[in-house]
């Protein structure tokens, strides 16, 4: 009734045009929001805990994201959020201090949070040696040395016999094991769940700050469509 | 100023998380009068099945070190409470728990389990035939998962202690 009083052909045309153009603009976004909304509504029934492929996870990483770690036998060892990862698989808690990785006959010895973690060739955790098991304190580095493994506290160097275990002081200065930058594709694998991706598509946050404001614009467009649609409807009645 | 000081103390106490309360070496030396022998036990087959039942998952290692002197043994294991591992020490005399200590707690909440009012509940506990602890253990509000972790590790340590003792008895020690 409000709009009938001032019926004007030009205004009517403007309202219809605005409604039509806005509708076309928001249609694609509406499809995304609606479909992701339906999926999220049934998230408990659908398994969304799996991880998205690396190329999709890549949208969350910028070239400035950098994680350093070690490589041994073509496996990447690194720490993210205090957890030790081998390639893309989380192994166990490691604190923030990854001192190095040494390959030996029966797998890998990893200096992790001041302790030595022994992984077999299949990357299963065999053992975890701490100072209580005789491990020297304040260890800083671990390296493969010929067929042996050496650890160093910066002052002394020890030859490791992990089976006994025994740590014998040797007169060798171990070569430093340098870290490498973990390739982005390794970090990206198994880093973003489907649930997170769909939720971020739904909210627009997948596109960062731009997506956040685009969602605001979309919401405003819906409001505009509702108003113009109401205006058109009232004029027809 | 007094209020500011009070807030600072309160805030500090809230931020004191992820602490190591006692070193593993100290726990071992406090648990034994004499110097214990370090041994290891392989966690395969039946033992991992029992771990699944008691802990809800396989123990995340193939081998576990423990310390022994006579009929007393000490076990140090990590178990995740909510997100981070809790390092738990359990001393067993015969088939009963002598002491439970929280060596390191890394979660942001629930660190109350380190206090004696909680850990002393385990003293004297053995395993019932259904693999539950013989002693009732009162929970702590806000630390349910941590309480469960300590309880489960205590049960598993008792099982492993019995398991190694029976191996000794029949002369099939595998370490």
Notes on the protein architecture:
The complex is a heterodimer of chains A (237) and B (175). In chain A, helix 1 (9-41) packs across helix 5 (208-236). In chain A, strands 4-3-2-1-13 form a five-stranded antiparallel beta sheet, with no helix packed on it. Chain A has 237 residues and is of the alpha+beta class. Chain A is built from five helices and 13 strands. The model of chain A has no long low-confidence stretch (mean pLDDT 84). Chain B has one domain (18-169). Chain B has a six-stranded antiparallel beta sheet, sandwiched between helices. The longest helix of chain B is centred in the last third of the chain and has 26 residues, at 144-169. The chains are: A alpha+beta (237), B alpha+beta (175). Chain A binds chain B through residues 82, 92-93, 120, 124-134, and chain B through 23-25, 27-28, 38, 40, 60-65, 67, 76, 78, 84-85, 106.
How much strand content do the residues of chain B show?
Answer: 15-25%
**CATH architectural arrangement of the largest domain in chain A:** 7 Propeller
CATH superfamily of the largest domain in chain A: YVTN repeat-like/Quinoprotein amine dehydrogenase
Main sheet of chain B, how many strands, which sense, barrel? 6 strands, antiparallel
Helical fraction of chain B? 25-40%
Domain module tally of chain B: 1
Rg result of chain B: 17 Å
Q: How many domains make up the 3D coordinates of chain A?
A: 2
What's the end-to-end separation of chain A, in Å?
Answer: 9 Å
Mean pLDDT score of chain B, rounded? 86
Strand proportion of chain A = 25-35%
Biggest interface, CB < 8 A = A-B, 15 and 19 residues
Strand order of the largest sheet of chain B: 1-6-5-4-3-2
CATH classification, class level of the largest domain in chain A: Mainly Beta
Largest sheet strand order of chain A = 4-3-2-1-13
Query: Tell me, what's the shape of chain A?
Result: rod-shaped
Radius of gyration of chain A: 29 Å
Q: Please write the string of helix (H) and strand (E) elements of chain B.
A: HEHEHEEEEHH
